[in-house]
Amino acid sequence: MSYVDEVIERVVKENPAEPEFHQAVREVLESLRVVVDANEEAYRRDAVLERLVNPERQIKFRVPWIDDNGQVHVNTGYRVQFNSAIGPYKGGLRLHPSVNLGIIKFLGFEQIFKNSLTGLSIGGGKGGSDFDPKGKSDREIMAFCQSFMSELCKYIGADTDVPAGDIGTGAREIGYMFGQYKKLRGLFEGVLTGKGLSYGGSLARTEATGYGLLYLTEEMLKCNGETLQGKTVTVSGSGNVAIYAIEKAQQLGAKVVTCSDSTGWVYDPDGIDVAALKEIKEVNRQRLTEYSKYRPDSQYHEGKGVWTVKTDIALPCATQNELDLEDAKLLVENGVLAVAEGANMPTTAEATEFLQKSGVYFVPGKAANAGGVATSALEMAQNSERLSWSFEKVDKKLQEIMVNLFHNIDDAAKKYGFEGNYVIGANIAGFEKVVDAMNAQGIV
Ligand code: NDP
User: Fold this and answer.
1) Do domains 56-191 and 207-368 have the same CATH topology?
2) What is the CB < 6 Å shell around ligand 1?
3) Which residue's alpha carbon is at the smallest distance from atom 19 of ligand 1?
4) Which of 166, 169, 375 to mutate to test the pocket of ligand 1 (most atoms within 8 A of CB)?
5) Among protein residues, the one whose CA lies closest to atom 48 of ligand 1
């Protein structure tokens, strides 16, 4: 059995009930086959892949908090510090009832390669909790965040591990967590990113993942003789990534006709009204049912359906495995040109394979959504020098990072004979830097 197959088999056996983690490992290792096979003896001897798929450390803890009626609740908190070969662990904190160790491990594993692709010095990590922020009062959110950070603060720091936002963790939650960290550790330092502008946050961080997704998509299209100008785009989600993806797509001349949340989706034939969407989601924290009040000609549908709409470019920006084989078939039937992942692993393995085989340009999340973590690293740089850069400066750096990132994955794919396969290109380009650093640092 080949070394790659052996390690995949062991991961499945040793980490039962973690299907998302298996999926992520399988996808990465399958892409690395060409590199690993060429170095099989040395990699096997040095257990390179075993060291890569086993987190350096995983922390699981109790998070007790009291609701507004005096009832005590207990959630589970996680931080998986996956790989620090190229820098301090970096990755978001997800607050969602679906969170479990396997999901955090899949996200942390992906983060290693994504962070490497940014070209910046950041290792891979991820964390979160099965706490559901929906429907909670502001005081309850604060109680949870303080309790969560009371434990997490023992394991993180500006030079060791720097968490950020993710699903369910926005500026409000980061603020409460930062306050608690500062109180307990007595340190005002860049221990979290995605902070408010008044206490060390970076301009353009809020926009970064969505904007970065579009900078990369535009570059990819350009290199294939296409452009966003005049294209129809479908987006899923209506959170941080989706909102700023829609905004930038429209600035670049495309028309975005959909968005969604976990209960339904909107079709707006005249193009999504971003100002209305921001008011509904960022200010009022409401459901998408409200959208038709702003745009009477739009349609609201319950359930799932964004991928049934005819589109040139599909940008899944909600959550993992939200675009399956059936969706992929419909997209291809409707003539989709490109799919770029704003969310982490939103396309199932079967759907990815189908899209690629059908000649659709497909960019995986670890490359396409790396603008968020890249700008988080720029926030860390600003915190270290105690300076704040202008929006234009950060945005320009983000643009450069995404354009370079695209060329790195494109070149890696070409170098190994897989031209146009951006999944293989991203995994190989991300892996090469990490494995080089791991080898240089010895068996640790
Ligand atoms: P938000 O919480 O801001 O938004 C998530 C959006 O997806 C919401 O519209 C939410 O709907 C929807 N959603 C979440 N879970 C589900 C589900 N199970 N089924 C259907 N819809 C769902 O998160 P972000 O925008 O920050 O993150 C979106 C994705 O992008 C995630 O995969 C995240 O890991 C990834 N990502 C985020 C980065 C960032 O900087 N924020 C950076 C890189 C990747 P509802 O409001 O109803 O829950």
Assistant:
1) yes
2) 165-168, 209, 237-242, 261-263, 317-319, 342-344, 369, 372
3) 262
4) 166
5) 262
pLDDT digits (tens, 9 = 90+) for 18-54: 999 999 999 999 999 999 999 999 999 999 999 999 9
Residue ranges of the domains in the chain? 1-54, 56-191, 207-368
Q: Which CATH superfamily is domain 56-191 in?
A: Leucine Dehydrogenase, chain A, domain 1 (3.40.50.10860)
pLDDT for res 234: 98
Using the atom order of ligand 1, give the atom closest to the CA of residue 372: 40
Kind and range of the H or E run holding 236: strand 232-236
Q: pLDDT band at residue 203, thresholds of 50, 70 and 90?
A: very high
Residues 6+ positions from 286 with CB-CB distance below 8 Å: 280
Q: What is the DSSP string of 177-228?
A: HHHHHHHHH---S--SSS--GGGT--TTHHHHHHHHHHHHHHHHHHHTT--S
Position 89 scores a pLDDT of: 98
Whether the predicted model's global pTM rises above the 0.85 cut: yes
How far, in Å, is the centroid of ligand 1 from the Cα of 201?
21
Is the sign of the CA dihedral 93, 97, 101, 105 positive or negative? negative
pLDDT of residue 173: 98
CA 177 to ligand 1 center in whole angstroms? 20
421 alpha-carbon distance from chain centroid: 20
Give the three-class secondary structure for 90: strand
pLDDT in tens, 288-311: 999 999 999 999 999 999 999 999
Give catalytic residue positions. 126
Q: Is 70 helix (H, G, I), strand (E, B) or coil?
A: coil
User: Which class is 207-368 in CATH?
Assistant: alpha beta
Per-residue pLDDT at 390: 98
- pLDDT category at 364 given cuts 50, 70, 90 is very high
